[in-house]
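Lecture notes, unit on binding sites. The following record was shown on slide 14. It pairs a sequence with manganese (II) ion.
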Amino acid sequence: MLNVDLHCHSNISDGILSPSAVAVRAKANGVDVWALTDHDEIRGIPEARAAALELGLQFVTGVEISITWGAQTIHIVGLHIDETNQELVQGLAETRGGRERRARDMAAQLAAAGIPDAFEGALKHVGNPDLISRTHFARHLVDIGICADTHEVFRRYLVEGKPGYVPHRWASLAQAVKWILGAGGIAVVAHPGRYHLNDVALGAFFDEFKQLGGTAIEVNTGSHSPDQYTEYAKIAIAYGFLGSRGSDFHSPGESRVDLGALPPLPPGVVPVWHDWSLENA
Ligand code: AMP
Ligand code: MN
Ligand code: MN
Ligand code: MN
């Protein structure tokens, strides 16, 4: 069986490893088909593709786009995109645009909560100055001993209702899906079990996503618990969505699931890669 991992991050967004180092790790872990899906960024793709080619990994272009739907932040993965598509390139540049302002506002709030100079601290962890994320603040707060790990930082500081949280308006669902489809790609709802949506709201979201041309959801992801693999397999089947599999790997110390380490998709789920031309499929 092919080991397919279609969701992970490099230091072009909030991962720790360079795109080629992620490729090396994927290969070492037995991955056959691999996509790098940095947040709102595609500039890691050339390095990732070259490394994959050298290692004999089947490479799939990818991106994870941040969107705002109602009051929620949701992530939409785009697979098999043409990363040179100008509307996609431009849309992602706009999506990244507010990140520095937001980071400065987060730092001001953290300073008011007794943690000064967090912007400068977070910047030390940033691999791409256009993509400063909450994860970089989390790593800084661990470094200076405020929290034991990044999960604790999120819980205590970086989520809604906490002192370092700054609301942000990202792209719309319609924009993200349009950019992905316009670039010849497949739109996939990332880790649907992570959002704070009740069944009715999640159903409305899936209906809208489907109407816009979205065709897949992540079923097995490092951001789901094993119970959720089963739960979202049923949902994928009920809605007629294809199912995706991706570790959401960010770094060796932080991620619960390593590259390539998820179980296979549950029976009955049609893999998002079912009609791709892959070797040894
Ligand atoms: P941002 O795009 O700046 O809002 O950052 C979002 C990123 O923060 C996600 O992609 C995750 O990598 C990370 N993240 C979100 N929630 C948590 C959490 N509870 N624990 C650890 N990392 C988290
Ligand atoms: Mn992330
Ligand atoms: Mn995500
Ligand atoms: Mn991710």
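Take-home: The mean pLDDT is 98.
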